[in-house]
Specification:
Elements lengths: L1 E5 L9 H15 L3 E7 L12 E6 L3 E3 L2 E3 L3 H7 L4 E6 L2 H13 L4 E5 L9 H19 L2 E4 L2 H10 L7 E3 L21 E6 L11 H8 L4 E6 L5 H7 L4 E5 L3 H10 L2 E4 L11 H8 L4 E4 L5 H7 L2 E4 L4 H10 L4 H12 L3 H15 L2
Parallel strand pairs: 1-2, 1-6, 2-3, 6-7, 7-8, 8-9, 10-11, 10-13, 11-12, 13-14, 14-15
Antiparallel strand pairs: 4-5
Length: 360
């Protein structure tokens, strides 16, 4: 099957949607499908081309919020041959162009709705207008909408009744071969907590401010990885037990997952937090997690006993979880076992089923 994917950006650009498309595309290629990714050229590098994934990187004129505006996208899609279009939200321009041109070409469209469009400051007028006037027609036009959790499905159906009957729950996956436990023995050190995110205004919903407050004065080491415009802001509000690592490599990220006692994702916005792939990566490395109740994998974490679920914005609950939960051999095995249920091989099979149902 020929599948066109239109994320706003793609590997090696770092981001949740970008990583989702990258891993899904790899898994689909392994299953014999042909993948063409059409995206902006932000972060693209010829040296980083992915084997067997055909990437068409387009120049972009400017960005509105987190969306690159690529004026050549309509022409690229018009020329493209594919059996199914798989596009993604929350990037309005890209998703709209991909959907409406595919409909003109009489091609089915699968839309993965990762999270809502939420803007700050003056752009809130833009996001409100889009959500009220333009998003409903888009949702009516696509053939299938996939979301990461049942809760997100219910929320979307309540806000947009036109989505009823076309939403399927297909969570993101994790590369269980790349993200796996370390064979090294645990170091003799104080408890290490790990947090990873882009440190900018757009990602404040990840809840780092609450985590920094929660660990103040505790006998733990918090490692915060990631770079962005708010790095200095977070540094000024952090205690002396916080280590800011800045931007890290993939190898460093995996080592931090493996060598930490807990990974913490205290997200505070259910509109913006689609699933929390970083928590899934940590679990695959055998590291238990502390997550807020709005993170997509929260219920499974509670059910499998491989972490703690806390209410959003509850500093005391985060503090208690960090101090009380002990990640022993049993808990680490449970973490790994849960992640195996989300292997990209399994998730790709579910998307295959979606594609097959919509292709004429």
């Amino acid at each position: 099957m020929r599948i066109a994917q239109t994320p706003v950006r793609f590997y090696p650009y770092v981001g949740g949607v970008e990583n989702f498309v990258y891993e899904l595309s790899k898994a689909l290629v392994e299953k014999g499908h042909s993948i063409r990714v059409i995206c902006s050229n932000e972060g693209q590098n010829d040296k980083d081309r992915i084997k067997n994934i055909d990437v068409r990187a387009l120049p972009y004129a400017f960005k509105i919020a987190n969306t690159n505006i690529t004026f050549s996208l309509p022409f690229a899609i018009k020329k493209e041959s594919y059996d199914v279009m798989h596009t993604h939200m929350p990037t309005p321009y890209t998703a709209d162009v991909s959907t409406y041109l595919s409909k003109i070409k009489d091609k089915p469209v699968v839309l993965t709705y990762h999270n809502d469009i939420v803007a700050q400051g003056p752009l809130r007028v833009f996001s409100y207008t889009y959500n009220v006037a333009f998003l409903p027609p888009l949702l009516r036009s696509v053939d299938v909408i996939t979301v990461s959790t049942i809760l997100y499905k219910k929320r979307l159906e309540k806000r947009y009744p036109e989505t009823k009957g076309k939403i399927e729950v297909v969570p993101p996956g994790v590369d269980v071969e790349r993200f796996k436990p370390s064979i090294k023995e645990k170091e003799n050190r104080r408890k290490r907590i790990f947090f990873l995110s882009v440190l900018d205004e757009f990602h404040r919903y990840k809840g780092l401010e609450h985590l920094l407050e929660a660990v103040k004065g505790l006998d733990v080491e918090l490692v915060v990885a990631g770079a962005g415009k708010l790095l200095d802001y977070y540094r000024k509000s952090a205690g002396n037990n916080v280590n800011f690592s800045g931007r890290i490599s993939e190898e460093e990220k995996i080592e931090l997952y493996q060598n930490s006692d807990l990974f913490v994702l205290p997200s505070i916005s259910e509109e913006q937090e689609g699933f929390g792939i970083v928590a899934l990566e940590a679990l695959a490395c055998g590291t238990p997690v502390v997550v807020s109740s709005i993170v997509g994998i929260a219920e499974d974490v509670k059910k499998h006993g491989c972490g703690v679920v806390v209410p959003p914005k509850n500093v005391n609950a985060i503090r208690e979880a960090v101090m009380s939960f002990e990640s022993g051999v049993k808990e680490r095995k449970k973490a790994r076992a849960l992640a195996m249920e989300y292997s990209w091989h399994r998730i790709a099979e579910r998307f295959e089923g979606v594609y097959q149902r919509v292709v004429k």
